[in-house]
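Table S2 (continued). Query chain:
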Amino acid sequence: MKISKFLWSVLVVFATVALIAPQQVEAIIVDGRVSGQTVFSGSGTITESSGINSNGINGSGINELDFNGQNFPHGPLSVTGATGDFSPILGSQANFDLAIRWTGSGSSVNLLDVLPGVGGPAWNSPIVGANGFATGTFFSLQSVTFDEDSLTMIGMGRTQVVSGDPLVLKHSAARIVIQGTGQDFTYNLTVGTTSLPEGGSGLGLLAIGLVAVEGLRRKITTRQNRYA
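Corresponding output:
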């Protein structure tokens, strides 16, 4: 059964609210879709449960892409490009909440750690000075090809930007592409997230005042302090 765009909007906001303990209540506005693209740069390493070889993975093992850096396996990665609604995060850093794990290869791949209605691995980047953040969440993988010196991963998901006072939420479908070159399954990575247009009337027609919590503001501030 196909979920309507209105219902999807409500579910997204409710999922956000559900992650935060209710405290003081205030409005959060769903105001259209995200537009633009963002690009991260960093380093990552692929491991596999039963070992890897120079031709990559063709077996039934679980593959894992870890993001190298101070917060390994989460990153950080540097935001080196940003347009449209992503512009405020240019020059900031992004961290993944989970390593990316999958089974299979080529176009026959299955993304792991995906929760229904919530998604799987996601990046988060704070909007410094705007009490907000941007995120991109994998919901599925279309293809993964790699060997010891190159990687291409193409996935689909959602992206969100939350900022302002009162808080304004924009979100849309997104294509997330990770590419890298290197050696011994460690790569110099670029992570590109591109917002995709919505069909029909679109989320841009929604301007709905919904209930959120003050805890969201503190969560944003905590993230900004953590990644500063």
